[in-house]
Every structure is written in C-alpha cells, then in structure tokens.
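Is this the right way to post structure tokens for a design question? Let me know if I should format differently. Anyway, here goes:
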C-alpha cells in the first residue's frame, strides 16, 4: 500500500498507449504527486515524528 511506511516499494504500471503494461515495482522515494509535490513523510518513514 502506498501509505504503509514499512513498505518501501509499490507495484504499479506506467500508462503507455492503449495496451496494458507489465506490473513493476517502484520505490516510493522516486514517486511524486502529479502536482510535483513529494509524498508525505509519514507514508515513507515509520519514525517520521522522531526525525522532525
């Protein structure tokens, strides 16, 4: 799950044309929202409160 901080990768597919693409693992550190904003730290780091 995207919001599980214990999981460092998620499974997904890149959209390319009309054909369904193969599922691949993507590291959360490389993901951003469409707006360019980074994912919330609490979705990636279990100890995010200690690092603040």
């Amino acid at each position: 799950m995207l919001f599980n901080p214990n999981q460092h990768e998620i499974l997904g597919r890149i959209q390319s044309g009309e054909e369904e693409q193969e599922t691949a693992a993507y590291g959360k550190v490389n993901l951003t929202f469409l707006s360019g904003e980074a994912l919330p730290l609490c979705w990636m780091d279990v100890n995010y409160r200690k690092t603040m």
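Format looks fine. Someone answered above. Worth noting: The chain has a mean pLDDT of 89. Residues 3 and 14 are 19 Å apart (CA to CA).
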